[in-house]
Amino acid sequence: MKADQLRDMLLTLRFELRRSYGLPGLLGALMIVAAALMCAEISSVDADTKEMQDPARLALAAKAQHLADTRSVEGDAIALDALPELFPRFSQSADDIAAIFEQAHGSNLTLGSAEYQVNTDAGTRFTRYQVMLPVKDQYSAIRHFLASVLNSVPNAALREIHVERPAVDGNILDARVRFELIYRSAQP
């Protein structure tokens, strides 16, 4: 009942205003209200623009940004110095290789003879141990093996994978997987 009464009251108001001022008068009042809103918005934007153009404020903002960048660079340098300590020593390599073979056994994969290569670049604080594994199985088993190795050995990276299907109608794949295990060097 209240909605009907409100609608009747608004209709009555509309007819009374139209009768008193006419259609051009109502359109004029609407345009005056729109112009007042635009003036208020323009003055707000103008004040924001003047604040942004204030040279002292710009200098303070630039100085604050420079200080933040300096702190960020210093923090990055500290984090970079601490990075090698997050990696295990090379003495853990046998345990990591055992974990890779354990993951292969858990994925029911048959591994061929592996190839190993140790690289230590002069001037770096890391030793890279590359392990090349020939794998022969279905795609889902190989994918499960890769995911489980990367999840269980945090210092392992999948460096390369090469997959071939020997038979067109077969679902057994021949794959060569190269993992790179990263260790911190004994030298500083």
UniProtKB/TrEMBL annotation:
TM spans (from-to): 21-38
Lineage top rank: taxon: Bacteria
Keywords in alphabetical order: Membrane, Transmembrane, Transmembrane helix
Protein name: Pilus assembly protein PilO
Protein source organism: Trinickia violacea
Lineage, opening ranks: Bacteria, Pseudomonadati, Pseudomonadota, Betaproteobacteria, Burkholderiales
